[in-house]
Amino acid sequence: MSSQSVKLKNAIKHFSEAQAAWEKGQQETAISLLGKALELDPDSYKYNYSLGTCLAISGKFAEAVAPLQKSLEIYPGYEFAKDTLEWCQRNLAGQTPAQE
Questions:
Q1: Which of the listed residues 41, 49, 67, 75 has the most CB atoms within 10 Å of its CB?
Q2: Closest by alpha carbon to 27, among 43, 63, 51, 5?
Q3: pTM of the predicted model as reported, rounded to 2 decimal places
């Protein structure tokens, strides 16, 4: 098995563990595991989106912007990433959807 294959396999493992941690309410663990997945596969739109979303839901809007933007660089048509990025930007600007 090539080193790239091992990296991708480990990234998938971290991503799966992050999903399980999130479902158990372990937000910081999930965020950490997603970071590890991204270290191994930084060009995954899914991992970038998931990290950005976890950060945003945790109220870390400023930190969420970069991975969401990276997700959109990789997959420009990804509507979920666009919506989540806009939500972060509204929160950072102090606006709720009703104020727009």
A1: 67
A2: 51
A3: 0.90
